[in-house]
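Bit of a strange request maybe. I'm writing a small parser for structure token strings and I need a real example to test against, not something I typed by hand. Could someone generate the tokens for this chain?
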Amino acid sequence: MPIKPAHSAEAWERLRAIETRPVQTLFEADARRFEAMSVRLEWPGVQGERAGMLIDWSKTHLTSEALDAFETLAKARGFAEARTALFQGGIVNPSEGRAATHAAMRGSGDPAAVEEAEALLARMGLLVDAIHEGAMGDVRHLIHIGIGGSALGPALAVDALTRDLARVDVHVVSNIDGLALEAAFAACDPAKTLIAVASKTFTTIETMTNAASALDWLAREGVDDPSGRVVALTASPERAVEWGVDETRILPFPTSVGGRYSIWSSIGFPIALAIGMEEFREFLGGAHAIDSHFVASEGRRNGPLMAAFADQYYAQLRGCQTRAVFAYDERLALFPDYLQQLEMESNGKRVTASGEPLDGPSAPITWGGVGTDAQHAVFQLLHQGTHLLPVDFIAAIAPGDALDPAHHRALLMNCLAQGAALMAGKSAGEAEREYPGDRPSTMFLLDDIDAASLGALIAFHEHRTFANAVLMGINPFDQFGVELGKTIANQIEAGEGAFDPSTRALIAAAGLA
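Reply from user aminoacidic:
Good idea to test on real output. This should exercise your parser:
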């Protein structure tokens, strides 16, 4: 169903007319606000038990009246139809004329795409199992080379899921700065190291430059046939063959899987190598459970859509230019970085999917950190600064450590206390000691951090990003904004291009002329 601009405008008019009331007042008016404004999502856990995640929006300014209007907006924007197109392989990336089939990589959506994904997963599983069984010798290390989603996703998952033990030690390198690659070299025994090269096109300059340097390193260190130590993860297998990778070590993925959505595909190879295929399938299973919820649930009972309602409320109606994400769990230290690319590259657009200027703000700036460190760094501004900043808190009930339970108890208490303090504030009689309060936050409380829950958490935010895009009328699956800088860098390399005086002077000062 096409967007109905008039109906969309009516929904926004209703939303703008709603009186803004303090969150504490909303609790006073509704004794069951927590129950009405929270949802628990579940997936299969260990030994047949259910595991899950509780999400609480009750400390936001959303009201039942506002949610009614947002549900009207979602209908006017054709949310249900867009969701169907996403899962049935429709063209949801119109600027590139493509479907977006990342959900199929975890068993959701169009049957043909799911069948293809399962075949690709089985192919990856054969290689992973063969490496674990010694078919490529004694493999202790993997240097995974990629950039953007090809690196951020694997880095997050490996860091989160291998705190106790990794079957293979994985080092993710994305930066073209040679210091990053040298650090990986220093940590690895070249005779026991594989190189994974992750590039959708197998032409990405940063990735291919790092890959060439990695092969040079293996050769310098006396490794016979360095190219025989390379695994290629790509949507362009023919280019990997031309680069010198044997077909048996090429793990393809479809061109309809974008980089920041590619963790479920062969880009997840380093994760599977580190944790094993059984656990990697649990990772996919957690994501699949969120897919099922996203498809089957409507309106405010749809968790990712509800999150998008909150995002749109604060960006469009309260003028919030950023959203902060704080993970109160060391295992999720890289999650804010992962979200930055997912949300800002997907929804940082200035025009709609039809090319019309956006009639409001695009995605807010996503930023964040790890609790409790962030409390002593940035929370001063959250509590007493002049900016209104919606905050997401993420925590797990089960600890990730084996130390005195007092550690995890203090961690959880600090997390819950920050949300309560942001809302309640404090009147102290002295201006510099007063906290205005009425600062919004959302809580994501997971039972534990394991492969399934991490998959669920990531998939939730993918669908949240998609829902926001639909509500804004934009295309979240292209990223032309990243291309201009690459083009100009190539012009500098070639000594071409008419640059401004500042850039010309800097090119000369940097020795690039």
